[in-house]
From TrEMBL:
It comes from the Eukaryota. GO terms for biological process: proteolysis. It comes from Lactuca saligna. The lineage of its organism: Eukaryota, Viridiplantae, Streptophyta, Embryophyta, Tracheophyta. This is Peptidase S9 prolyl oligopeptidase catalytic domain-containing protein. Signal peptide: none annotated. Residues 118-344 form the Peptidase S9 prolyl oligopeptidase catalytic domain. InterPro entries: AB_hydrolase_fold, Peptidase_S9_cat. One of its GO terms (molecular function) is serine-type peptidase activity.
Amino acid sequence: MDPIESEANLRSQFLEVLRSRRSPVVPLQTLPAKCVVEPLYQGTPCDYEAMKSVPKAPIHNFNEENFYLITEEGEQGQLPVLILSKKESTHLKRPAVVFLHSSHTCKEWVRPLLEDYASRGYIAVAIDSRYHGERAKTPTAYEDALVSSWKKGDTMPFIYDTVWDLLMLADYLTAREDIDNSKIGILGMSLGGMHAWFAAFADTRYSVVVPIISIQSFRWALDNDQWHARVHSIKSVFEEARIDLGKDTIDKEVVEKVWNRIAPGLASKFDSDHTVPVIAVRPLLIINGEVDPRCPLEGLDATISTTQKAFDAHSLTHFKVIVEPGIGHEVTLSMLKEASDWFDKFLKP
């Protein structure tokens, strides 16, 4: 099988998994929503200082849109969307960037980035991922959804369900008259970075991709006993699985069974060494911390090597990996600056 056919086959398999646990799909439509004044944060969200340090942009010249995009039937099928754009007298199509928040936060958390990019002429888009923000009814909604997924096997709240939403979001964005369809970028941090990675793998309409502190190898972590930090970040589902499996402690078997149940293929055919190279030849910037225990660098050798080969036939200037020395699972202002420069390089008119 040639590489193009192989990539198409892998993408098709992934889309089949996404569709396997969907409620009935509905026609693309929007419903009006109000600006969220008091957003819900769950548990102990990552309070990255970098987000507070994003340069303040003047906000008097923005258009703000708040609405729900209906991605499927049911409560979680209402995707909350926030869009900021600069008021313009021209009718030229503009580049867009989708920003994806980390675990336990929400779309309002990335608002400093929306304001910064909108002030520079981008159409800046943010969503609440599944069981976050407006889609969360309780402070434990996300963790509860993960446990339910393990118990029932009817949803995929860890990564995959939000990726489905992002495919529907791409349908919406490409239908807008003010967006250049060839210039839709996507940036995510931590969990949001995984959403960006898989959305770009599944949908080529995301043309410039920046996953921050998120690219990792789930298979390598299992095989090399380096899964603990990732598991600890959503520990309740693994504790529930441990009990159900009659184990005294969470071990490799428990972790692998959870991944297979709540995100089929995550630690096998859809792992990073298979899916990240498929993003080529679209511009891809990977940013990780040198000592991030959730994304061990040692596990990324195969992914980076395979991705470099995928870009070789085209342009290696479209692929870059940045590892920040001494940084763990943390977003820094320099990471955000690198991402901004990347989008300006490939998306700005």
